[in-house]
């Protein structure tokens, strides 16, 4: 059975770190924590789980800190987590099983990363990450911020999930790093341009975000999923600025990179729904359901856009078109996904009444 080093970088994570380590401590063979300057109880809490606590002077470079943590590992494989990540019990069981069955030929293992949840506790956004890597391969992290782990060789895909359970985060940290790099006149890679634009958008600096998204797309060297995401985020910026034409142009621009994704189809459906062009809106929501069958799991996946949301909106469209049986069928599908959805339950009461009255009506 292979041995595993857990390598983490932390700073002021007293509210998260104990929960994270408790979820994985018995599944790994050593825990290496690199602290980058905590002033709270993070280090004392960590020492309850390991004496392998090291310190790294923070230089605004996440990759450098993570690579340092990896350099301290001594076991066959390295697992990495953030302090606000956990393995829920079903995934703990799967990880334990993986450890027993992992073939020595595997160089890296990717896992699902559950990022957000709806009000019913169901996953609403997820992505994939390479989480477990063979130490002897010497894989390295790249990028001062929004860093990524570059892997190769034999990669195994699993359904094991790491769950993100953040209580809070420093919303300005990444933007500050990028602004400092910009002030030093550093050259930004296409990836840097994309993530800098994301930070600007998240801080509602829409015009600056648009500038850097355009610069990113203009390089022609972005990862296809980032290109598609940039189009969606451009649409968000133009929507916030009240520019509907350029919002739609950005949505259709995404089609240049790949077949329409469910998220974009839902966005188009909503545009036409607002215009009361119900047949066209229904077309795009039906397209979202078809697009959802071809989702690339390495991309950020908004689960609602390929599952219950199109059905909910199709219920509205077909009701407005007078096709109540079809509206009812789509609404029932929503309830299969979300039995407690208040809007779908209200729709059911309304549509049951409409269909009952139709059945009672005398034939012409």
TrEMBL record:
Keywords: Transferase. GO terms for molecular function: transferase activity. Residues 5-122 form the Glycosyltransferase 2-like domain. This is Glycosyltransferase family 2 protein. It comes from Paenibacillus chitinolyticus. The lineage of its organism: Bacteria, Bacillati, Bacillota, Bacilli, Bacillales.
């Amino acid at each position: 059975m292979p041995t595993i080093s857990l390598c983490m970088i932390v700073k002021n994570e007293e509210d998260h770190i104990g929960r994270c380590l408790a979820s994985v401590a018995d599944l790994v063979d050593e825990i290496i924590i690199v602290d980058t300057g905590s002033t709270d109880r993070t280090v004392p809490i960590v020492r309850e789980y390991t004496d392998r606590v090291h310190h790294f002077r923070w230089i605004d470079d996440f990759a450098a800190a993570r690579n340092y943590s990896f350099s301290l590992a001594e076991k066959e494989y390295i697992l990495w987590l953030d302090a606000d990540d956990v393995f829920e019990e079903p995934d703990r069981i799967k990880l334990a099983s993986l450890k027993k069955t992992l073939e020595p030929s595997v160089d890296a293992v990717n896992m699902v990363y559950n990022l957000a949840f709806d009000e019913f506790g169901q996953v609403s956004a997820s992505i994939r990450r390479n989480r477990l890597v063979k130490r002897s391969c010497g894989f390295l992290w790249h990028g001062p911020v929004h860093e990524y782990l570059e892997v190769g060789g034999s990669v195994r895909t699993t359904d094991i999930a790491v769950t993100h359970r953040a209580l809070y985060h420093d919303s300005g940290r990444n933007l500050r790093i990028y602004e400092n790099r910009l002030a030093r006149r550093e050259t930004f890679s296409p990836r840097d341009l994309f993530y800098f634009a994301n930070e600007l958008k998240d801080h509602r600096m829409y015009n600056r975000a648009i500038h850097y998204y355009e610069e990113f797309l203009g390089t022609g060297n972005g990862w296809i999923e980032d290109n598609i995401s940039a189009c969606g985020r451009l649409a968000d910026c133009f929507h916030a600025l009240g520019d509907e034409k350029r919002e739609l142009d950005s949505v259709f621009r995404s089609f240049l990179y790949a077949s329409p994704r469910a998220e974009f189809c839902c966005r188009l459906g909503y545009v036409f729904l607002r215009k009361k062009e119900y047949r066209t809106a229904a077309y795009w929501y039906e397209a979202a359901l078809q697009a959802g069958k071809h989702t690339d799991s390495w991309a950020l996946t908004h689960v609602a856009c390929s599952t219950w949301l199109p059905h909910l909106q199709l219920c509205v469209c077909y009701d407005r078109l007078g096709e109540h049986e079809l509206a009812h069928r789509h609404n029932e599908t929503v309830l299969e996904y979300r039995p407690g959805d208040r809007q779908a339950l209200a729709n059911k009461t309304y549509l049951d009444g409409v269909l009952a009255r139709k059945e009672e009506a005398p034939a012409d």
